[in-house]
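User: quick one
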Amino acid sequence: MKTMLRLSVNGKPREDAVAENALLIDYLRDALALTGTKQGCDGGECGACTVLVDGQPRLACSTLAHSVAGREVETVESLSQEGNISRLQRSFHENLGAQCGFCTPGMIMAAEALLRVNPKPDRDQIRAALAGNLCRCTGYVKIVDSVEAACGREHAL
Amino acid sequence: MNALPEFHYLRPATAADAVRMHAASPASHYIAGGTDLMPNLRRGLVTIGAAIDLGGVKELGEIVEQGNTLRIGSGVSLAQIAAHPVVQARLPAVAQAALGVAGPTHRAAATLGGNLCLDTRCNYYNQSEAWRAGNNYCMKRDGEGCRVAKKSKRCYAAFSGDVAPALIALGAEVEILGTEGVRRQPLLELYRDDGMKWLTLAPGELLVAVQVSLDDAWVSAYEKVRMRGAIDFPLAGVAVALRREKGVLTGLRIACTGVASQPIAIDGLDAVLGRPLDAAALATISEQADLANRSMKTTLVDALYRRGVSLVLAKRLTQRLWDAAV
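Assistant: Done. Structure below.
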């Protein structure tokens, strides 16, 4: 049965009729067409569905939509401003942090959460923050490089 | 993986309301972080009529220092526990265990209560519907018999929570709320060695909080062995709490996870007390840990390896704590 869900998604307040058993990822992708958030494993093992809930990284595939009522949800779509990609997105692009790109939104959201609380993380801290995100292409070195390189940037390019 | 089955979503504001809601619809299931329950629901391992979301129950989300006791609400996230200064400084085994669970994204959502009540795990259970159908299911869900021990009448799925052994080694107690009120008991008594009914909670009872004493005479540590460095359950995990006074071992408690259907406390350790830790004492510790170990082939890794590695961890952590506690 659908009930009303009030929350903020990417800075905009929303009110939608959402099924009681809907997962956050299905609400974001199917109801709001925010398909940047990826379904990888569906079991909480890969991190491709990572979004921010009140600034904390959360797995949208194992979170009930109604459990984030009243909270602030941010997806990868929120990062670009007026057509300009964010410093992290730019850094992944320039440092070859993305290959097939499927894990990239989750990687970037997990890294975004890290940089908000720790603007100058060392490589171990970056690896620890991304420990829940799987990549089958890059071997992770370029991803850690990308996050590290983004730390020096003040603004989106 | 399948879509979620139909169920109602309930969001109580107090623990008492949660227990009342459960009593009103017995097929319901408490949910907090959902990091284990959600995948299990999608794999058809659990059936629920309603999800009672504990996320809105503020009283479950507090860590309070009361004199010499730390009371940790069952709704506190593992990330909060791992980062809490009192836990880090005075209950290091608990901080290490919480930090060892899954990955950072899970720990931000997963709660203490969820980790303590974690469903038991087995290679023949934590699989998709299609996989289990192809293997004719098992007694823990939808089928008959045990795939791990063919002639067994019981289920050997392994308890794999990381935080329980740390808290058991530190002598923690749990507060449990039911329709009759609150009761307290040692954490170890929350469990029984049965993969299908591993908790002693009555239907609808809610784990509210854990109380653990802050006794700085005791030092502690937790270590686990797993396949991957992150997002993995323990093949074996060991917690040790130790007291060293004037060059003599005066207290030793060791608890293990991943090696039985419940977390186990190692018996027979009194024999090594009253003297310094030496090779003979470590041999006794290893023997006692071996006696208590009930590893079965519930993971892809051999049970004998998990047994062996748990003994090594028990000895290594004991030695390390002894050396550091001069």
